[in-house]
Specification:
alpha/beta, 190 residues, 3-stranded parallel β-sheet, 7 strands, elongated
Length: 190
């Protein structure tokens, strides 16, 4: 049976054309259809589209499609639902690639889970984000090697701090490894 068998999808207008085409291709290739009646609305993680649609449609993020394909099985929609009630507004399954005190780890884990994310202590297939402060560790090297296949984001932990401080999920690009702009800016200020 096809991965997305029974999924009748509509893509949110918030999705850019290039991403729209990629998602449509992935969904169609794996058995979904864009023919009505629609069962799923696919939106960008972090978008505010829930109010746009009435009825009993599933409103899931683009990450739900991507993670389901990467892992070869439908992912729980509850974890990958666009949810405007949480700060992060998209599922984060996070691992940390640096040494912190037990107290710091507990505080970070509690913050992430209270804001809608999930926490892992090991780098597993369901991890969507890895926080790293440097490039020398085994976890970082493994994550970078598999990132193209898993769509994992390898970020500096500053991304989470800034998202919390600003009260919204900030764009990931300035925090992405291998060359996070945020570290270059912080070092140039010092």
């Amino acid at each position: 049976m096809a991965l997305f068998n029974g999924v009748h999808y509509a893509l949110s207008s918030s999705i850019q054309v290039e991403r729209h085409e990629k998602l449509s291709s992935l969904l169609d290739l794996h058995g979904a259809t864009s023919a009505p009646p629609h069962t799923h609305i696919i939106a960008l993680a972090g978008s505010h589209i829930q109010g746009e649609y009435e009825g009993s449609l599933y409103v899931v993020s683009d990450m739900w499609v991507q993670r389901s394909v990467v892992l070869g099985q439908l992912q729980p929609m509850k974890q990958l639902t666009v949810n405007v009630s949480v700060l992060l507004r998209a599922p984060l399954i996070i691992d940390v690639d640096y040494k912190l005190s037990q107290w710091d780890l507990e505080v970070l884990a509690a913050g992430i889970t209270s804001l809608g994310g999930q926490w892992r202590t090991a780098l597993t297939r369901d991890v969507t984000h890895l926080f790293a402060l440097h490039e020398q560790s085994d976890k970082y090297q493994t994550a970078m090697y598999f990132a193209p296949q898993t769509a994992m984001s390898i970020l500096t932990p500053h991304w989470f701090d800034d998202s919390v401080q600003l009260g919204c999920r900030v764009p990931e690009i300035p925090y992405l490894w291998p060359d996070p702009e945020v570290l270059a800016r912080r070092h140039s200020v010092l």
